[in-house]
Write a structure and sequence with these properties.
Alpha/beta knot; six-stranded parallel β-sheet; two-stranded antiparallel ribbon; tRNA_m1G_MeTrfase_euk; tRNA binding; MT_TRM10-typ; tRNA (adenine(9)-N1)-methyltransferase activity; EC 2.1.1.221
Length: 415
């Protein structure tokens, strides 16, 4: 009886189940197989002892579960496997043809690729996966390079730390810090004041304020290390402002020990107006020489959008004198705006204060913005260029002489 039961199961699995799967007869096949198996088992159970009888409900559940697994495996898997294999073959062909195809693709991505409605959609999806894979590779490469640079920097720091351990280097650094602090303390009593106007927080974004604070920190360190430093004033400075929070981030505990003057008052309330000069690139007046008796004001503002006229309007509102650096007089300007960073302005003003040499001072202007220095003012060069252009156009010598006499009346007289 057991052999007959096993034979019946093999016949059902080999012939009936594939036939039913092809023609969609799952329910009828299940009922038929259940009646056949139940009838055989019932006949077998009659000959068995009471201790060997089976629980029919449990047996039905097991048989139903096994039947569903077998049908799903035999019906769905071969089609899906064949379609996935065909999709992988097409991907390999496209890769050999030189198209943008990802190297590694998961089964979910392959299924979405198969569900694309058109060939162009499939190409776009594969290109998207290819670019995503390249982006991940580039990110990984950058992270590896960053780790390597970090390890190299740590090695260099360890090497420099070993050199700094010598007593002479430590003594030298401590004595230089004391000398710089002594100069800054003297500048607070005898030095020329330099004002940073801190009233432009509303005109800038958070990122621009952080950049402004970084430039001011560089300016303060440059001023502290100079031979004759300025007495720096932070005017219109408010506590718990964004400026204040950024300065605390940079200086931390040293913020309260800086040898500078910080006040919420305006500079017109501290200094006389006739001594104040507001430095702005929008001023129509050009600065000719550095005046040691004047008090220069620098607007603490970094604007990526280059808001013209903001600092000039502030100076006019307060009735102050304005001045701009003579960049066009000494530099052949090529590209970019004439707005400089705050640390560059500090370098220029310190050099002018020490040497009164514009050529040395304007060396701190970024070289990408100008072509070079000129010996003559740019206006005279433009006049000579106009004369050259007239010669190229073929005008007469008399017209050239008249033009030259107008431009240089003292040097040349018409006959």
């Amino acid at each position: 009886m057991q052999c007959a039961n096993m034979l019946l199961r093999k016949i059902v699995r080999s012939s009936v189940i594939p036939f039913a799967a092809q023609h969609g007869m799952k329910k009828d096949l299940f009922l038929l197989s259940r009646t056949l198996s139940l009838s055989l088992c019932l006949k077998q159970d009659k000959s068995c002892e009471p201790s060997q009888k089976l629980d029919l409900d449990e047996w039905k559940k097991v048989m139903k579960f096994r039947f569903q697994e077998e049908v799903s495996e035999m019906v769905s898997d071969p089609k899906e496997l064949s379609s996935l294999a065909a999709a992988r073959e097409t991907l390999e062909m496209w890769r050999l043809a030189g198209r943008a195809v990802p190297e590694n693709i998961s089964e979910e991505q392959l299924k979405t690729f198969m569900q694309c409605p058109s060939k162009s959609a499939k190409k776009k999806y594969l290109r998207y996966l290819h670019l995503k894979e390249l982006r991940k590779k580039n990110d990984k490469r950058r992270m590896d390079e960053k780790k390597e640079r970090k390890l190299e920097a740590q090695d260099q720091v360890s090497n420099t730390d070993e050199t700094k351990k010598s007593s002479f280097v430590c003594l030298w650094s401590s004595t230089m810090d004391k000398a710089y602090n002594w100069r800054a303390a003297q500048s607070m009593i005898f030095g020329q004041p330099l004002v940073f106007d801190m009233s432009y927080e509303k005109e800038m974004s958070v990122r621009e304020v952080t950049n402004t604070v970084r430039q001011i920190v560089l300016s303060e360190s440059c001023n502290r290390r100079s031979v004759d430093p300025f007495h720096i004033h932070f005017c219109n400075f408010k506590n718990d402002s964004l400026y204040h929070r950024e300065f605390i981030k940079h200086y931390r505990e040293a913020w309260g020990k800086l040898l500078i003057t910080v006040t919420d008052q305006c500079y017109t309330e501290i200094f006389p107006k006739d001594k104040l000069i507001y430095l702005t690139a929008d001023s129509p007046k050009v600065m000719k020489t550095f005046d040691h008796d004047k008090i220069y004001i620098v607007g603490s503002m970094v604007d990526k959008s280059i808001k013209t006229g903001v600092s000039l309007a502030q100076a006019k509102r307060l009735g102050l004198e304005t001045a701009a650096l003579p960049l066009e007089k000494y530099l052949l300007w090529s590209t970019g705006a004439k707005n400089l960073t705050l640390d560059q302005m500090m370098h220029i003003l310190l050099t002018l204060k020490d040497t009164a040499d514009w050529k040395k001072a304007l060396e701190f202007v970024p070289k990408r913005k100008y072509c070079g220095f000129v010996n003559k003012p740019v206006k005279e060069l433009k006049k000579t260029l106009d004369l050259i252009n007239t010669l190229k156009l073929g005008k007469g010598w008399k017209e050239v002489e008249k033009q030259f006499a107008k431009n240089h009346p003292k040097k040349y007289k018409l006959k």
